Amino acid sequence: MRSYFRLLLLALAPLVVLTTGCHIVVPEVSHQALLHNPFPQLSRVAVTPFFNQSEEPTVDGRQFARAYFSELQTIPGYEVVPVGVVETAMREMGIVNLDDPAKVRALGEALGVDAVVVGAVTEFSPYYPPRCGLRVSWYASNPGFHEIPAGYGLPWGTAMEEYIPPKVVFEAEMALARAQLETQSPTVGGLPQVVTPTDQAPLSEPLPFPLEATQPLEADPFEGSGEPAESLPAPQDAIDARDAGAEATSYAANDAIGPTGSSVATDATGAFPPEWPDASGFTPPGPSAVRPQASPNFGPVMTQTQVYHGADAEFTAALADYVGFRDDARTGGWQSYLSRSDDFIRFCCHRHLSEMLIARGGGGETRVVSRWPRGR
Prior knowledge:
By secondary structure, this protein is of the alpha/beta class. The protein contains eight helices and eight strands. It has a domain of 229 residues: ABC-type transport auxiliary lipoprotein component (Rossmann fold, 3-Layer(aba) Sandwich). It is globular and about 70 Å long.
């Protein structure tokens, strides 16, 4: 009897739910992209006030530096020196501008940091749709650290390569192409010598007769001579000659390659110069028993330049995710961030850091976030 009543209750349960208007509430599941520091040797960072290179006179470089500091501090693996401490050190050292990399490294050594961030605002408009352009360079205090291009540390040549964003693939290809073309750019030792018509050597012998347009053409010298004209080579003879030439060319190319497979400088067409940049440079080398010999680098180790528009669909989609994971209780949603300059600038700094780190192996992981819907 009891089993009969249990079956009856289970059968009537859906009807009760429908008549009372109740519904089952389940949590919303989303995936949050995570960032981390992919370079342990650049853990302690100092952020300097940004320079204003835009046409907007109200840009405050300290405001941008504080926003960049706040977003960088939230990324695991970074310890960021407060902007006020950096400004105090700059005043004590008498540093007014940071246009010289030597000054930047001196500031980094005085602060005891691994890298110094020098940023500039290239474009800014607070009016809807807002715009913000940023160019940020990271200078390592150790001059032995060289540039880290986009694409470094990514899973090239593995099954995960297909998941690399196309934008990052393009940036990596451009970085490799720039490095390769630097070895092919011509170097000019001095000004080219201009040769005037008077400096040209005269003809060895004068023409035997003047060329006139009315002069008749000579008859064919082979016509009526009785000698057969030279015949064209047979098709097989032409193929053999082509193969022989290709084989000789391949021997010349092989002679240009060293015993270890590395290319050496030679006059042969198609040979590679020494230290030719290739895709293997995107893969970090393994540990070495001997410290490498330093080659000074006077430029930044990382540089990221980007302009953000408040009406861009990709930008607003990323902004919606950013606001959603922050659980901001203020009204207006992500649209209100476009009208508040502080929030807009902070998100632009977050976006700028995300793009720079993801392109260099600092992303790719996500975490599952479950939350109850707001209107439950």
